[in-house]
Amino acid sequence: MNYAIIAAGEGSRLAQEGFHLPKPMVSLYGEMLIDRLIGIFMRNNAERIKIIINEDSPRLESHLTELSLTLPIDIVKKSTPSSLHSVYELLKSDRELDTVCLTTTDTVFKEDEFSEFIAAFEENENMEGQMAVTTFIDDESPLFVTVDENSRIVAFTDTNSTNTEFVSGGIYCLRKRAIESVNQAVESGLSRMRNFQRQLLENGIKLQAYPFSKIVDVDHVADIRTAELFLSPENAG
């Protein structure tokens, strides 16, 4: 499996609250967010890991280059205006890429659920994309996900007008046709991941929803403790 991490955000809200390292260097129980993701990916059959960081992250770049790993990490250094543009920069250099799983560096989930998510994607070769969903709303501007009786995604909405139980979890597995749609999305002027996901549906790309019990986004200092409580042994299982 090819993996990609979006780590190009500035972490402005964390900085305003007194945390002055790059967001990927936030630690949960002594382990940085970026290191946690890399470790999880490596334990889930990673063949390659690509990471995009912004151009003003020398400490993060130094940390990544000093890691001692059993597989290489490809680092793309570029400041981008949005997560969608980060995805574009990550994927545009590899025209032969046929599968990828990507997420943002501040997405915190349980490893066992992620392993099941990856296994489900690998087993369902007819599905062009699989996206994590959860009933836990942690985002300040959630993207609601409507699914059919077979857990196929049929709509992404900014408001819960259809009384759906799911919101997007920010973890995306894509196959060839969905990957190729990234170029089309950016070149047509789209600038948000949620609009890209809507475009996938408009293009007839089949997307499967995969439920996680909970996914926490670390956007504020208070979210660090929320994420640690979520990952604590007392909440295992």
Helix/strand layout:
Blueprint: E1 2-7, H1 12-16, E2 27-28, E3 31-32, H2 33-42, E4 48-53, H3 58-66, E5 73-77, H4 83-91, E6 99-104, E7 107-108, H5 111-123, E8 129-134, E9 144-147, E10 153-157, E11 166-175, H6 176-187, H7 193-202, E12 207-212, E13 216-217, H8 221-231
Parallel strand pairs: 1-4, 1-6, 4-5, 8-12
Antiparallel strand pairs: 2-3, 6-11, 7-13, 8-11, 9-10, 9-11
Helix pairs in contact: 4-6, 6-7
Based on the structure, what is the oligomeric state of the protein chains?
single chain
Radius of gyration: 17 Å
- What is the residue-mean pLDDT, rounded to a whole number? 91
Shape: globular
Q: Return the structural class.
A: alpha/beta
SSE order, as H and E?
EHEEHEHEHEEHEEEEHHEEH
Strand percentage lies at: 25-35%
Q: Segments where pLDDT lies below 50 for 5+ residues?
A: none
User: Do you know the CATH architecture?
Assistant: Alpha-Beta Complex
Number of strands: 13
CATH fold-type name: Spore Coat Polysaccharide Biosynthesis Protein SpsA, Chain A
Number of helices: 8
- Separation of termini? 26 Å
Total domain count: 1
Biggest sheet features: 9 strands, mixed
Helix proportion range: 25-40%
CATH homologous superfamily descriptor: Spore Coat Polysaccharide Biosynthesis Protein SpsA, Chain A
